[in-house]
Design a protein that fits this description.
alpha/beta, six-stranded parallel β-sheet, about 60% helix, Beta Polymerase, domain 2, Rossmann fold, 3 domains, four-stranded antiparallel β-sheet
Length: about 425
């Protein structure tokens, strides 16, 4: 059976997730340690900034002890008390575990629904497990099916199309205004986390020339280095505003850094070129009066938040389609899983039939010896053909019934009916 145990951004604070992450990192060979726990046959470990999860194929006969061992392993990694672990950890079995990992891979369980990073993280976790021979038939099939579900969600829905972060919305807005960021000079005012995130989006969308202006030149240099850009202090702001096509400002300054007077002053030197200003600072960095000037377009964080909210509503609608796709893929996997449970019984059934054939053929050795080689082969083929035809109907029925009803009950009935365990 499959078990999934873990914690995420919904169930545990960052401090707890960090402790467990650090504890697991200290394990020299984490997957081997997990596989050494009694009852664990296959295992995969997924760790991101928002979740830590163990997915394992376990022996159902040792379920209680194995799940307790996995639970204790995670709890001890983060030095959590039993009470803390009980509040933070979730456990899913079989179909619910399958549903959870499919939703994770499809970004339906992410902090930002529709984000694209999680699928790559799930694939990386699988590659690591595969490289260490920690997975087998069950988890290999599970992970490939989760990837197919995620791919269908990307292709058949618009869940990841529209930006749902302010920094990404700012970049998308700039692309709409200019058509392309190629060849555009971009001025980032501020060198904090928001500026860095915006810069990353700019680079991934084709921006090539980025200038970082900041009160601290050393801080500006550190950020500019990441983008292979230019760093300047705020003393050079007027000069760089003349050159810029797009300005994105995100400082913590208490007053306007870019005033309407400053924009008026450089307006003539810009030779009427389009200037796109995006103010994502609170309080605002750019004087709202600047938007009254010709060829100057100014958007603030409220404008962008409206875009983000609208796009999130679109994603929520698309999530309904995505959940339907996930359910279809779960049904396919569960059907395969049930079929796998019947395989040992089908093998046993065929083996029993072959034993009966061999025993009866042995009894017929006396008169069979009177036949020539070709005739004996014909008798063998005839007997095997009859056995295969007799078995075909019950084996087919077994597979069909298993996909509809309780596979364990049906398998047990077949084994009793044909005395396969005697």
């Amino acid at each position: 059976m499959i078990v999934l145990i873990g914690l995420n951004h919904k169930t545990a604070p960052l401090a707890v997730r960090e402790k467990i992450f650090a504890g697991c990192q200290e394990e020299n060979d984490l997957l081997s340690s997990l596989r050494s726990l009694g009852g664990v046959g296959e295992v995969l470990y997924l760790s991101t900034c928002n979740r830590i999860e163990i997915i394992a194929g376990i022996d159902e006969r040792e379920k209680t002890e194995t799940v307790r061992n996995l639970h204790d392993f995670l709890a001890q990694s983060g030095s959590l008390t039993l009470e803390e672990a009980a509040k933070c950890f979730y456990k899913y079995y079989d179909e619910e575990a399958v549903r959870h990992i499919f939703r994770v891979a499809s970004s339906l369980d992410s902090l930002v629904m529709g984000e694209t990073q999680i699928l790559g993280q799930v694939k990386d976790a699988y590659r690591q497990a595969l490289a260490q021979n920690a997975t087998g038939v069950v988890l290999n099939r599970l992970m490939h099916c989760s990837f197919r579900a995620a791919k269908r969600v990307r292709q058949e829905t618009a869940i990841a199309v529209n930006p749902v972060s302010v920094s990404f919305a700012a970049v998308e807005l700039a692309k709409k205004i200019f058509g392309s960021l190629t060849g555009k000079k971009i001025l980032l005012i501020g060198a904090g986390e928001m500026a860095e995130l915006t810069g990353m989006h700019l680079i991934s969308n084709g921006a090539e020339e980025i200038i970082v202006a900041n009160r601290s030149l050393s801080q500006a240099s550190l950020l500019a280095e990441k983008f292979h850009g230019e760093a300047v202090s705020l003393d050079a702001l007027e000069e760089k505003l003349i050159e810029a096509d797009i300005v994105i400002s995100s400082t913590g300054a208490p007053a306007y850094i870019v005033t309407a007077d400053l924009i008026r002053r450089i307006h003539h030197q810009r030779k009427n070129r389009l200037l796109f200003l995006i103010d994502i600072a609170v309080p605002r960095d750019i004087d709202p009066a600047a938007s009254s000037l010709e060829n100057v377009y100014l958007y603030n964080i409220d404008n962008l938040q409206d875009i983000v909210d609208e796009n999130m509503n679109v994603r929520k609608k698309e999530a309904i389609k995505a959940e339907m796709i996930v359910e279809e893929e779960i049904a396919r996997y569960v059907s395969w899983q049930k079929e796998q449970e019947s395989v040992p019984t089908i093998v046993s059934l065929r083996n029993k039939a072959e034993e009966i054939v061999r025993a009866e053929m042995d009894k017929a050795t006396g008169w069979m010896q009177k036949l020539d080689k070709e005739e004996r082969e014909k008798v063998d083929n005839l007997v095997n053909s009859v056995v295969n035809k007799i078995l075909h109907t019950p084996v087919t029925a077994l597979k069909e019934e298993i996909s509809e009803f309780s596979s364990k009950d049906i398998v047990a009935t077949v084994r009793r009916l044909f005395r396969l365990d005697e």
